[in-house]
Amino acid sequence: EMLSKKHRLPIQEFLKGGRSEIVRAKYFIIKTRPNNLSFSRFGVIISAKVSKSAVKRNKIKRMFFNFIRLNKYHLKPGKDTLIIFLPLVSKLVKKEIENELEKSLNLTPNT
User: Which of 30, 40, 69, 87 is the Cys-Cys partner for 79 at CB 3.0 to 4.6 Å?
Assistant: First the structure.
């Protein structure tokens, strides 16, 4: 089951917007910004540099949204978060990616 539509970040709109707080980790870059909503929204960018295979990229994306949903990050109020996956992430297995996400998402303020 995917994260519901309202919890997904319209990425183009986010990129046009103002300044974001940026956390750089080894496997991804996390950009956050307040959104004045009662819930948080998440977006993902996974370039072809991460994996040439769209199937693999989509698998990472689904894994990410599922991780957010299961850990209820989307229920925390008021943040838009964009995660840009870096090519190194393709070397990790699912559990490792989840552990890295957990570490990085907890670094971001207001959590």
Answer: 40
Cβ-contact 110, 23 below 8 angstroms: no
Q: Which two tokens stand for residue 54?
A: 């769209």
β-pair partners for 30: 23, 83
pTM for the structure as a whole:
0.87
Gap between the Cα atoms of 60 and 66, Å rounded: 10
Q: Rounded distance, CA 52 to CA 66, Å?
A: 22
Q: How far is CA 98 from the centre of its chain?
A: 11
Round to whole Å and give the CA distance between 64 and 43. Answer: 10
What is the per-residue pLDDT across 15-66, written as a single tens digit (0 to 9) for each? Answer: 888 888 998 888 999 999 998 899 999 999 999 999 999 999 999 999 999 9
- Residue of 33, 54, 49, 35 lying closest to 89 (CA atoms): 49
Does residue 10 sit in helix, strand or coil? coil
